[in-house]
Amino acid sequence: MALLSLSARFACIALSTALVSLGCGGKVVIDREPSAEEPPDLTPPPCGRDPLTAPPPDDAIGRLRYGFASQWRGMATTPPGWVPYDEYPVEIAFDALGRYEAKCLFDECVAFYYGTPSPVPDQTYEIAGVLDDGTGVGKIRISFASTSGSVETGGLAEIRMSEELEHLTFAFLPSWSGKKIEPVRYDLRCVSE
Fold this sequence. Notes:
Layout: H1 6-21, H2 60-68, E1 71-77, E2 87-94, E3 100-104, E4 125-130, E5 136-143, E6 151-161, E7 167-173, E8 184-189
Organism: Polyangium fumosum
Protein name: Lipoprotein
């Protein structure tokens, strides 16, 4: 094999550079960011309520409890500076007996920010009342079954339900901590059948 002269080597390098800059030849692609996963489906699920059990329109607490006990999908928003997400998609099913199942639709995430991501029997909630401003209040039990095994009670506040019972917003407060912590806010939807 013959050795190329120095000038021939420079000519080859110049030709290769020119071809690459014109879009010819091999390209090196550096993927600095991992490919994004498919975004989660945020289509509101069917609410799943039995219309025969609906309370009378003038029963504010009964209407809030009836509307709350549904399947919901939407977004949770954490206070500024919380990690790993400022906002994350969730799916929550509250039943009429006071139990719930909740999941974050991202990996490495828990729907109520605290607790275990798996459904366990200790996950319960209660709508306790309706305030003069029309918002509801209640409490929710968060299970730490996958870590300490404890169950802690947090607060539900600013519960608002749309007239059609298809849009729910509320604030979750980890009140067991004994510290003044800003709430995680939920904006959820379902579709009446």
